[in-house]
Automatic annotation (TrEMBL):
Gene3D superfamilies noted in UniProt: Tetracycline Repressor, domain 2
Superkingdom, natural source: Bacteria
Name used for this protein in its record: WHG domain-containing protein
Species this chain originates from: Paracoccus alcaliphilus
Alphabetized InterPro entries for the sequence: MT1864/Rv1816-like_C, Tet_transcr_reg_TetR-rel_C_sf
Keyword annotations: Transcription, Transcription regulation
HTH-type transcriptional regulator MT1864/Rv1816-like C-terminal domain segment(s): 91-182
Length: 212
């Protein structure tokens, strides 16, 4: 099982850690495997016994990142009242943003689309699918419990929710949040915006009272 971050306790983890140190943003050039091995203090022959090339190293790093992200999101969700699916949905989004800011290099790796393709790799796609399925189930429970309209388009809500959380995370890690909401710290601004989004989504989904 992977730890929260590569801890250098194995050649495999040392190579992942070195690869992330060498990866600059934006990635103008992908480091070669021999460069990663040298940075990690691992013999190139041993590195090639573990990975065919540097892109395999970054795919392994992305798998670690997705594992940590999914774990962080699930731990956040289970702390919320299971009968309040919309609150769980909000907790999921907040955990995603927190993780992205805390693990910025890994967030950029899995979201950049240059070194790794989440849906193009069966190895990575399973983590992507697990998160999407979790979002679907939350919103379906919210609909079935009357917190969302019975005819709500759940698939569209999943896309918009994911896009909104990703956008907030990107604004924070890129240092752009203060341009739009300078009054408070960026992370607090992101949390408030997410909370407002979830509330408005839930309210907007409910049928209007014809008596009003």
């Amino acid at each position: 099982m992977y730890h929260q971050k590569p801890d250098g306790s194995s050649e495999h983890n040392r190579l992942l850690d070195a690869a992330m140190r060498l990866l600059h943003h934006p990635a103008i050039r992908v480091p070669e495997l021999d460069e990663i091995a040298q940075e990690a203090g691992v013999e190139e022959q041993q590195a090639r016994a573990l990975f065919a090339d540097s892109r395999e190293v970054y795919e392994a790093a992305a798998e670690c990142a997705l594992l940590w992200l999914n774990d962080a999101c699930i731990r956040a969700v289970v702390k919320v009242d299971p009968d309040d699916s919309m609150a769980q949905f909000g907790a999921l989004g907040e955990a995603y943003i927190d993780w992205a800011v805390t693990n910025e290099p890994y967030f950029r790796l899995i979201s950049g689309g240059q070194l790794v393709q989440l849906v193009g790799s069966p190895r990575l796609k399973r983590y992507h699918d697990a998160m999407r399925d979790l979002m679907f189930k939350m919103l379906e429970r919210a609909r079935d419990s009357g917190r969302l309209a019975a005819d709500e388009n759940i698939a569209l809500m999943v896309i918009s929710g994911r896009s909104f959380a990703y956008g907030l995370a990107r604004m924070v890690v890129d240092g752009r949040m203060a341009e739009w909401y300078p009054e408070i710290p960026p992370m607090e601004a992101a949390r408030q915006a997410l909370h407002d989004y979830v509330l408005r989504t839930a309210r907007g989904s409910m049928p209007r009272d014809p008596a009003r």
